[in-house]
What does this fold into?
Amino acid sequence: MKVGKAFLGRSAMAIVLSLGAGSQVHAEPETYGGYSIAGVYSSDAARTTDEELDGSAVVGRAYAGVSFDSGGNETQVQVSSGYYAYFTREDRWTNRLEATQIFEVSDTVQLFAQAAGATNLVTLERRGTDQAGLEAGIRLEKGDHRATLSGAMRRRWYDDGDARSWSPRIGAEYRYRIGSWHSVEVGAFSESVDSDLDTLNYERLQFAGYYTRPVADRTRLRAGLLHRRWEWDGRFAPDGANRRERLWIPQLRLTHRLRDEMSVDLDYRHVIRRSNDERFDRSGNRVAVTFRNSF
It folds into this structure.
């Protein structure tokens, strides 16, 4: 995409400087990276225009980064790329560049900021979206408890060039650690899109809860429920009301660690979509098997 490629090319240095300027980095850098390969099956009824539910595909992802730690204040720069080879639609290649700065305020308080740019995303409003954004937040952690509050502002450009948008997002998350690989997490997020086209605009809420526990020495199980609800500004139901959508996704993920840097995931999701327009009422299944390797 023209806008996205130009954005990543021009912004790489600016992202690094904007987040790294506030920290005096003297420590030796540490490099890291990894890749994953996934096979995804998504039934027709489960396919929605959404970041996570994008159709059956073989997906390859790779990432690499460098981090600096100076007195507890960490600077991290990462680049990643993913290729989606779909069975029923045009393939998609997406790239992302991000820089993160973490400030250790005390033993229990962290401040963080992130600048990121990505190309050819699938967003709720449209496929083929380039995005640049800034996010900042505070993380409180004491003992087994961790809470995070964050806010972000994102600028989006769309594939056919007929619209741009602003998309603010706020969120809160809490995790309680019960033991090794044993935890409970909950989160809530609110976001919206304000664009040049009414048909792209919406307000969306998301709520999620997850429970993770070990089931064997190298195996853990994660069970969760995700709920999203949104209302469109310029899309209407047959009775003339603004179209309202609801998405419920109960899910299970089994992760087996082959060795410290390698793992295999088996992920199942049942997608239940409800709308005040019955044409968008449907339910389906999504199954993914993913091999991961980090170094």
Summary: The helical segments are 2-20. The radius of gyration is 20 Å. Residues 9-18 have pLDDT under 50 and may be disordered.
